[in-house]
Amino acid sequence: MLKRSKFETTQSQIMHRAEDLISAASNRYRITVQVANRAKRRRYEDFENNEDAIMKPVLRAIIEMSDELNQPEIIGEL
């Protein structure tokens, strides 16, 4: 029996976003470490805020980073 996800992004969309991140990166290892670090940071932020996370931190990090890649205007001026 398959378990349905509670968020709108499907597994195939996540895989496509992850592939986009890896293909846009100059170094596969570095982008993997960046995703892991962001997920780790988000995990601790969620833990400190006592929020019940619907989406796992790694999936959230992949989605956020692919959105930043596709829509650079959401990052803003640095």
TrEMBL record:
Domain of life: Bacteria
Key word Signal present: no
EC number: 2.7.7.6
Nucleotidyltransferase keyword on record: yes
GO molecular function: DNA-directed RNA polymerase activity
Pfam families for the chain: RNA_pol_Rpb6
Entry-linked SUPFAM superfamilies: RPB6/omega subunit-like
Keywords assigned by UniProt, alphabetized: DNA-directed RNA polymerase, Nucleotidyltransferase, Transcription, Transferase
GO terms under cellular component: DNA-directed RNA polymerase complex
Purpose of the protein: Promotes RNA polymerase assembly. Latches the N- and C-terminal regions of the beta' subunit thereby facilitating its interaction with the beta and alpha subunits.
Subunit structure, as described in the record: In cyanobacteria the RNAP catalytic core is composed of 2 alpha, 1 beta, 1 beta', 1 gamma and 1 omega subunit. When a sigma factor is associated with the core the holoenzyme is formed, which can initiate transcription.
Family: Belongs to the RNA polymerase subunit omega family.
Protein name in the entry: DNA-directed RNA polymerase subunit omega
UniProt source species: Okeanomitos corallinicola TIOX110
